[in-house]
Each structure stands twice: as C-alpha cells, then as structure tokens.
Amino acid sequence: MFTVNNSNGMTNNSPGKIFVRAIAITVLLLVSAQASADTPQQRPAYLTFGFLPIVSPERLVKRFAPLVDYLSRETGIEIRMVTAPDFLTFVHRTQDEQRYDLLFTAPHLYYLAHARRGYHVIARVDRPGMQAVIVAPHRSRIYKLQDLRSKRLATTDPLALTTVLVREHLEANGIDPDNDLTLVATPSHNASLLSAYQGATDAAALILPLFRRANPQVRESMRIIDTTRMVPHMPIAVAPWIDPALGERIASALVSLNESPDGRTLLSHLDWPGFVTANEEEYASLEGIVRALKVP
C-alpha cells in the first residue's frame, strides 16, 4: 500500500516523483473511500490521517499531500492519507469505526468527534474564523434575506459547515429552511455558486474565502445578501489512543511551519498563514448546531 512518508526534503522532490506520489495517494484515497474498516484494536506502525471530503480525492491530494509528507518527516512516522465518499460516511468512520488517528475536519464535525469519541484538537488554521455568505445574481430581485422566501437556495452537503451555518442563520431570522424556501444540495462550494450564476437556483451559499477566490466573472456578477456568524477555523485533532507526547510533536511541527523557508513555501501552497495551538473551549459555541444535525 502506498504511503506518503518521504525521507527526502521538501525541496528535493522531482516533478516526476511528485506526480507519481500524487497518483498513488489518489488511488489510496479512492480505495479508502469504498473499503470497509478495521477497528483500532491492533494498530499498525503508521498513522491514518482522515481528511473530510471537502473536495475530490484528486484535489485533496494536490493540496494536502505536501503537509502529510512534512509531518511524516518531522515525526519519523509513516502517515497515510485517507478520506470517505461523503460527509456522513466520514462521520461514521470517525465515531463508529474509529478509523482515523489524525483528523482534518470541519469545526462542527470536530466538536462532534470530541464529544462522542474523545478526539483532541492540537492546532487550527491561524485565521480569525470561518463564515458563510449568501449571494444572488445582480440581475435578480433578491436584495435581502427575506427575499429568499419561496426561492431556491443552492448549498453544499447537508452536513457541511456552510449548510448548517446558513440553516441556523435562516432560523434566527424567522425563515424555516425546510418550508419557506428550497435548499438545493450541490457537490461543492463552486457548484453552489455556479448553480446561481447559471440560473439553476435563485441564490447560493458558500464559505466566504471560497467566494472571494471564485472566478472573477462569476464573483462580480453576484451581490452578497447576508453573512452568517463566524466560527473557529479548521482544526487538526488526534485520536484519544494517540500518545500525548506524539500529539505535542505533531502540534509543534504544525506551529513551527513559519520558521523555515520550506515551511513557508508549504503554507503558501495551502494558502494559509500558519497554524496555532487550539483547545476544546474554542469550539464549544458549536454545540447548538451539532445538536441540530441529529447525526445518529
């Protein structure tokens, strides 16, 4: 089975090796998304790093394989990337099958993993937080939240942060998301935006940074109708069976990325300013939306 551990430094990877590694990790992710899991009774001598399927396996590889390589080198432990075919399967593999030693997941799904299975956050992206925006085409007559009544609003996966934040925001403003409008699930944030741009839906919801990075022609054709509250940024967590000393080593490796040229190159690739240490209290405000998810 392919692993993402690489004994060479970040700057020594040839384009050919990177291409071969990306293909191999993609195969691993795709196989993992369909394979049945073993419980962690006798764990092998490697760590399984579960990535929420926020994008396709190929795009997960492209963005996060360098981070996994870096952590493998810094810890001296082989680390393997895995994902799942959808959000719900990922949640079940986290809490029921206990498949992941390390976890990269959405803030509210981290809260769920911590509450139900004792996962412990060790670091988060060093940004103030995340919030969703609701946008509508300039050509439409949708100017405010109440104009969404009886309209079609494109969202992402029902368990995605965008969707749960938007549902919460609609309810807080007296709009029943199940009866006063139609929520249309799409495969991704970009698909949600394109749905409104192309007229398949009347408006779209997506995470604000992704809207800002969208195709300029699409982005400039939209107006922001409203924004949701802000929640803590994406966390990286360790399973309760991971040695605390190892968790500290991984956290240290993440936080120190800014201290070397190669680390800063990696952060630039991730489009993040860095990582900071984090704790459970930062995510406590997500209890309400997690309870509303009603995940079995």
UniProtKB/TrEMBL annotation:
It comes from the Bacteria. Transmembrane segments: none annotated. Keywords: Signal. Gene3D superfamilies: Periplasmic binding protein-like II (3.40.190.10). Pfam families: Phosphonate-bd (PF12974). Residues 1-37 form the signal peptide. PANTHER family: PHOSPHONATES-BINDING PERIPLASMIC PROTEIN. This is Phosphonate transport system substrate-binding protein. It comes from Thiogranum longum.
